[in-house]
Amino acid sequence: MNWDDAEAAGTDTDPAGRLVGADADGEDSAVEAALRPKDLAEFVGQPKVREQLDLMLRAARARGAAADHVLLSGAPGLGKTTLSMIIAAEMGAPIRITSGPAIQHAGDLASILSSLQEGEVLFLDEIHRMSRPAEEMLYMAMEDFRVDVIVGKGPGATAIPLELPPFTLVGATTRAGLLPPPLRDRFGFTAHMEFYEPGELEQVVHRSARLLDVTTDRDGAVEIAGRSRGTPRIANRLLRRVRDYAQVRADGRITREIAARALEVYEVDQRGLDRLDRAVLSALLKLFGGGPVGLSTLAVAVGEERETVEEVAEPFLVREGLLARTPRGRVATPAAWAHLGLAAPQNAPGATGQTGLFEA
Known about the structure:
- The structure is a single chain.
- The protein is α/β, with parallel strands linked by helices.
- The chain folds into 3 domains: 156 residues, P-loop containing nucleotide triphosphate hydrolases (Rossmann fold, 3-Layer(aba) Sandwich); 68 residues, Orthogonal Bundle (Helicase, Ruva Protein, domain 3); 84 residues, Arc Repressor Mutant, subunit A (Orthogonal Bundle).
- 44% of the residues lie in helices and 12% in strands.
- The chain is built from 14 helices and 9 strands.
- The strands form 3 sheets. A 5-stranded parallel sheet has the order 2-3-6-1-7, with helices on one face. Strands 4-5 form a two-stranded antiparallel sheet.
- Strand 2, helix 4 and strand 3 form a beta-alpha-beta unit.
- It is globular and about 70 Å long.
- The N terminus and C terminus are likely disordered.
- Its EC number is 3.6.4.-.
- It is an enzyme of class 3 (hydrolase).
- Its main location: cytoplasm.
- This is Holliday junction branch migration complex subunit RuvB.
- Keywords: ATP-binding, Cytoplasm, DNA damage, DNA recombination, DNA repair, DNA-binding, Helicase, Hydrolase, Nucleotide-binding.
């Protein structure tokens, strides 16, 4: 199950304690470590990525060589960290984990690379946030397994070539478009992690429940999976909170009714929207008639920072078809009115004769 993808450098804009936030906190990382699958056979979802990785790793083992460098992209919580650990396990190699923000100088990267063992897997999370000098050093390390260490300063500085043992770099990014082409092109295998289907998330919930020694029936798992925003990490987190509710206010067994009541307490609705998501939609509909409205104005209306609305709430609302970004501002779709149980006025965006607003 790839719901853990424990980002070494999370998104600072995600409000603290947000149950449906896809970034991992300390508790998530600790619990999810016990839930991670150990091999590709246990890994749920991402069938194409799994098949392609399996072929590449089998071939590398048959040749007795280190696997090609791997780039994994996708939203937080989809399993990038888990896959990196599986790659190491499948290759029978140790793994070292670091992150782009932690490597701010070329010397930081040189220190890590020079201590790698032959065949070792280096997992570099949020690789797009690495400093430019370190990034340029990585080019040579990936291609030639060599780095030039600069000794001294000024005219007397000397470059000492340092040979590296063959290793496998696994880079993970939530923003693949920020990677420069020279770096992206040096990966032998690239994969994009997709959001999960409800049936796949149901499997995630069932497996997690077994490992956590929680009894849940199929309907209970379906209810949790349907509110998990296509993200295994969120499914895992919701399961733990429903487990708490079931233990305190019921007999410990998770049914559809118990799951629904628990998630109502935690303000996660049937489509996975939480308090922040509904506050954005409510302000857009009730205060601004469905839009269009500027992002900064919308953020002020809900009492949040502009970046929080743009990076935390908007992506899921857009993906769910509840909100649209247009040249004139943010606009609610007809589905947003329906979801909040409100009647859209005749002049609302998306009503008859108003569809042009959605053209961007």
